[in-house]
Amino acid sequence: MIPLRAHIALFGGTFDPIHNAHLAMARAALDCPALALGRVVFVPAANPPHKTGVSMADWEDRVRMVELACAGDARFEVSRIERDANPSYSVNTIERLLATGSGPLAFLIGADAFAEIRSWHRWEDVVRLVEFIVVTRPGCVYDAPDGAVVHELSGLDLPVSSSDVRDRIARGESNVPVPEPVLRYISEHHLYC
After folding, report:
1. Which of 24, 83, 93, 130 is least surrounded by Cβ atoms within 10 Å, i.e. has the fewest?
2. Is the predicted pLDDT of residue 85 greater than 70, yes or no?
3. How much is the pLDDT for 193?
4. Helix 180-188 crosses helix 59-70 at what angle (to 10 degrees)?
5. Range of the domain at 82
6. d(CA 41, CA 74)
7. What CATH number did the domain enclosing 138 receive?
8. DSSP labels, 48-65
9. What would the pLDDT profile of 147-160 be if each residue is shown by its tens digit?
């Protein structure tokens, strides 16, 4: 395996809401000695192009939930770099972060999302600009594009999705896989009801 050059991993997503599997992925990447990461930067997407027409919690609410979930782990950082992004293309976020001197960067991503990388806006540039930390999932296969530097993170079985969390909250369940401060925020702001 080629050693990871990046010290920082970008973890983008809608985080609608952030849940325990997101945090487990980030911690596993940080705890993997072979990766030697220093921090994971969570970047909530302001206007994700693949979610047009889908009802989501407001961006400020999603960012606040990520901040609450990440509090207490100094290795986690939350970025508001996509505040004005319209739409939120990963390549633009990567270029903006690199322009601030935050490089080289790795991109932390689930295997299911990585399998769709060729459908992303300017995906060839994304492949050129970052290395990937792909969190494998049982039964999910992907074909890495030519030139992509991929580091697999395996051994995690995280069958949690944000849509499942939203559905469970809408049904009134209280035992959902999100950090307690996030669950309180959801309740206090009447999200996903």
Report:
1. 83
2. no
3. 86
4. 150
5. 8-188
6. 11
7. 3.40.50.620
8. -GGGTT-----HHHHHHH
9. 999 999 988 878 88
